[in-house]
Design a protein that fits this description.
- With 144 residues, the chain is an all-alpha fold.
- It has 2 domains: 61 residues, Endonuclease III, domain 1; 71 residues, Endonuclease Iii, domain 2, CATH 1.10.1670.
- The chain is built from 8 helices and no strands.
- Helix 1 packs across helix 2 and helix 5 crosses helix 7.
- The longest helix has 19 residues.
- It is globular.
């Protein structure tokens, strides 16, 4: 019954059946393995069911205030468009960005790039002329 209610609560997120199962199993793991406290390191977080590096980095950054590069679809796309990486694997992109973005800016960098991807640097119809990074963007330079 709990699974069905949770599925309904998160239906709009997509893949809600699998997410509901992972949320419940992850929660059980946090209680049984970590005494009910959310882990504060990448190794323990990624050991939880349904938690990959992106989710672990979101938790570390937003809950624990740890600097982290969060590679979602927007960061992946924009990092490639800007020429910051040639990789398509999110983990490789994370490590590429860690080398060039100052550590004390990892979280804010991620959030700003995500915001840019949601508003201007769209996947299908980017608004390159309105982008504040146009002069640095090889993709934008080629497509304006």
């Amino acid at each position: 019954m709990l699974v069905i209610q949770l599925q309904e609560d998160i239906r709009s997120t997509g893949f809600y059946r699998n997410k509901a199962k992972n949320i419940i199993n992850c929660s059980k793991d946090i209680v049984s393995r970590f005494g009910g406290k959310t882990p504060d390191n990448i190794e323990d977080l990624t050991s939880l069911q349904g938690v990959g590096r992106k989710t672990a980095n979101v938790v570390l950054s937003n809950i624990f205030g740890v600097q982290a590069i969060i590679v979602d679809t927007h960061v992946l796309r924009i990092s490639n468009r800007l020429g910051l990486t040639i990789n398509s694997d999110p983990v490789k992109i994370e490590f590429d960005l860690m080398k060039i973005v100052p550590k004390n800016s990892w979280s804010v960098f991620s959030h700003r790039i995500i915001a840019l991807g949601r508003t201007i640097c769209l996947a299908k119809k980017p608004k390159c002329p309105a982008c504040w990074l146009l002069e640095y963007c090889r993709y934008g330079q080629e497509n304006v």
